[in-house]
Structure formats: structure tokens, C-alpha cells
Amino acid sequence: MTDIPADAETRRAVAPVICYPNDTLPKVDLALYRGAREGARKVDEVLVPPREAMAFRVAAGQFFRVSSVEGPQVGDLNLWNAHDLSERFYSGKTRALHGTHLSTGERMWSAFPFLRPMATITEDTLGWYGIDGYGGSVHDVIGTRCDPYTHNLLSGGQYHHCCHSNLTRALADATGMTLAEAEPHVHDVLNVFMCTGFTRDTGQYFMKASPVRPGDYLEFFAEIDLLGALSACPGGDCSSEHSSDEAACYPLLVEVFAPEEGALQGWSQPGTNGYDRTHGR
To answer: What region holds the DUF1989 domain (predicted)?
Structure first.
């Protein structure tokens, strides 16, 4: 059964089928969001130091922006329901619904059993990049986050400023939990500004120098009350390596904006998923 069959090329030539046609997803009213953003005022900001993470809070109906401010830098973003940490960003289902990389008009969806929009991308200054000749693009939901466990597995080292550890410390600081309590809540990320893809020959996950420039940003609309944490990855622009202090790293800026009263007329927070959860019993 391991021999190449006579009809191998015919089997390879079968056309693909999209697993989750997404034309029935709730429509994104970008015009409403952008109109509300025009008169919004900044109510908070957090500067994330290089090789560290910081937490921030955004109320439902507000906007938050992640910006490159000094040099090319990628960031690992976690989102939780501010009132229930069990509702958190689900990168795998987001990838299944939208694709491997996110941009304007696409959403960060929450985990089961909630499965609702947590945040909607409203602006992306790197939207011009598209998909390059290597199959790379920006803002991926395929990488999990750099972590000290994989680093130890591959090199035997003890590195404490991987994004997983950074996010764990940030969540612990924001909630008063111990590190041991906080760590299980840290989850797969949106890799903001990171340029990634899969090699065509071996199917391996790759990274390459991010095209991000100081002044570039990714902006979101908070669909529910959010607790977020952002790590300024030790890989810098991810052009060479991560999980070390070798790469040049720069801070990232998170800003929160509140629209004027009445600017979101007709908008309401999305409810949790409508499945009845009986699972056939």
C-alpha cells in the first residue's frame, strides 16, 4: 500500500473544497465602525517594552490599536473575556474561518462553547503586503507563540523571555494570580506584524523579516469587554531567530480609543453561540 499508485497524479489533481464557506458569517459593518472611530478619543495607552509583555483592558464598543513605534517588531497577542478567562481567543477556529493570516474586516473568534467575535480588525496598514512569492503573509494565526518548553526541547536552554513566559507574567500581574494559575490561560496567539508561511517542499512553518515600519498599525474594534496581553517578541522582526537576546527588539504601543456617545447606533454586543449544547443526549 506504500507504493505509488498508477493514478497518483489523478488523485493529486482533485480540486480542493473550502471546509468552512464563510459567506454566512455575521456581516461586518466597517462603515459603522469607521464612522464611530472618527470622533473617538484616546482613553488609555500601554507601551510594551522589548522582550516583555503588558496587559491592557478595552471595553466593548471601544477600539484598540497596536503600533510599531521605533523599529521593526512583531508582537504576540492574547485576548480574554474580561469577566471570564475561560472565554479566550481561538486561533485554530479563526484560521479555519478566515485563513492563515488576518486583515481588515476579519475577526478574532472565541473558544467553545462561546464561539463569537471578540474583536474585529478595522484597519491594517500592512494590508498592501498580500501573499509573497514564498507564500508568506502578515498577522498569522498559524504560529503558537515562542515558548521556553520548545526552546528547552530543541536546545536544552532556559530562556525566560519567550512570548509564552512574557504573556504568563503579564496575565499574572493584571489579575493577581500566581504564575502557576495564570499559565494555563495563556493560549495560541495572533502574531501581529509577523511574516510567516509554510515551505512548499517540506511544509515547515517559516518566518521572515517583517515588512513593518515605525508608524504601521493594526486596529481592532472590541466586540466584548476584553482583557488583552501583548508580548514584544524576542525575535524582533523575526528575520533570524527568537528565544534569545540576539535580535534587535523594539517596543510596541497599545492605544485605546472610546467613540462618542451614540456613534455606534444599531450595534450591540454579539451573543454567545446558539448551539444548545445537548450533544445528542
So the answer is: 48-227
